[in-house]
Amino acid sequence: MKRVKPVSKYLLAILMIAAGTMHFVNSEFFLKIVPPYLPLHKELVLLSGASEILLGVLLLVPRYSRLAAWGIIALLIAVFPANVYLYQNQDILPASPIIHLLRLPLQGVFILWAYWHTRPADKKS
User: Fold this and answer.
1) Whole-angstrom distance, CA of residue 122 vs CA of residue 9
2) Is the per-residue pLDDT at 124 higher than 70?
């Protein structure tokens, strides 16, 4: 477990940074999945992307790592309505209905993954 957790942290950081970058590279896709009842769609897409990048970077900084993990959890909860909206409007991203359905609990897996990094590292060898 001593090696697994640091590798896991790097993978989560890379995933967050990559996902955040995609908000800038492919903003049009993310604009489509912002629920219509939310204001400032473009700003929300850019803010969530910048937040993902920042949190991913901070996850790699030991001093801020645990705080960044909590931030990732908060962000994943905040963007969950976009995943629900995508499930309700599957024509936005053509895929099997089961794929759309599985994306919803996958968000919980990511939250648990980030939560693992809010815990102090084991001091056991």
Assistant:
1) 14
2) no
Query: CB under 8 Å to 86, separation ≥6 — which residues?
Result: 33, 92, 93, 100, 103
User: Is 102 within a domain?
Assistant: yes
Give the separation between CA 27 and CA 88, rounded to whole angstroms.
Answer: 20
pLDDT value of position 120: 80
Question: Which residue segment(s) compose the domain that 45 sits in?
Answer: 4-116
Mean pLDDT (the chain, rounded): 94
Burial class (CB in 10 A: 0-12, 13-18, 19+), 117: buried
Domains identified in the chain, total number = 1
Contact 115, 5 (CB under 8 A): no
